[in-house]
Each structure stands twice: as structure tokens, then as C-alpha cells.
Amino acid sequence: MMARLMIRSYFLVLVIHAIFVSSAQAFLSALIPRQHYYPSTTTNANNDELGDANINESNSSLNTADATARDVVVACMDGLLNNDKPWANAGLELCWDYSSDRNRAAQGGSFVEFVTYASNPTFSTMVDAKEYSIENVGSYIPGTNTRGAMQTVLVKVQSLKGEERSFLWTMAQERRPSRQGMWLVHECINLENAVGL
After folding, report:
1. Whole-number Å distance between alpha carbons of 45 and 48
2. Which of 5, 21, 44, 72 is the most buried (most CB within 10 A)?
């Protein structure tokens, strides 16, 4: 009887320990942002033409308060242009990191679902594309009591197959900690699918 009680106690201690360790790991990973390294900010897949938003030159993620909505779009597009550098789906991961909670929920709520979504024929035009250009940056729309400031960025993308598509990135400035003040991707839509633009 005593042996059974000790085995049950030991098992209970292991379960509690596992719960504590996984909770601590989740908490710490939420506090410490992933570090991204992109050796250059380019606008084409050959890395021979420098872009004008030098935001990914260090080994840190884009989290400075002075980064504009355009800077975040350029960082995301540069990441998508070279999606698998320096690791698989690094560009998609960068886009996921700078997506709003609303956008994340719309894409399935997890990075794995986002990677699946990104393989659709429309969105995949941006992944490992040949080149892109910023066509227009919309007017700054000040924040209100219920949402942060907003701004749109129009991007034209040419795929490796020569197909051209335009995407409208709607950016929103986050109001809640821990990303308060940062520009996040609220939505990114293909202009062919936009109504009334």
C-alpha cells in the first residue's frame, strides 16, 4: 500500500513539474522576442538593388518606436522576397510577428495555419517574388478612442513567373502593451479582390 502511495505521489510531482516548466517556458518566450537577421534590405531577389528603408541591418527585430508603417511593410516584403533566408519561412515568420491580433485570427490563429494560408495562389505571389515596388503610401489617419492610427501602403509585386499583382497593406498602430505604438499589419489584400478601390 505504501509503495502505491509513493508511486502516485512521485507521478503527481512529475505532472506538476511538467506543467510548471511548460508554463515558465511559455511565459519567457512571450517576454523575449525572436531575433531576426536579414543581411540587407533589398527590393529584388538578386540582392543587387538596395532599398531606402534601412531597418533590418542589425541582428534585432523591427521594434523601434520610430519605424513607420512603410518601414514595416518594406521589412515584411524584404523578408518575403527571400523567405527561406536565413531559415525556412523566416520571411513569413517576420510577417506573422508584425501582424495584429485581428489579422492573426483571420489567418487561422497560429503560425502553422498562416504558412498554409501563404501557399494560396494569390498570397504566394509575394513569397520568393522577383521584385516589388512601393507604389503609394496613403494618408496618415489619426487614432481614435477605440483604435490606433492607420495608414495604407500599396505594393506592386512581380512573381518569378512574371505575373504582377498589387497588394494593399492596411497598417494599424497598436494601442496595447507589449507592442504599444508599433505599426502592425491589420490586413493585406489583393487589389483584384478589393471592393470600391
Report:
1. 8
2. 72
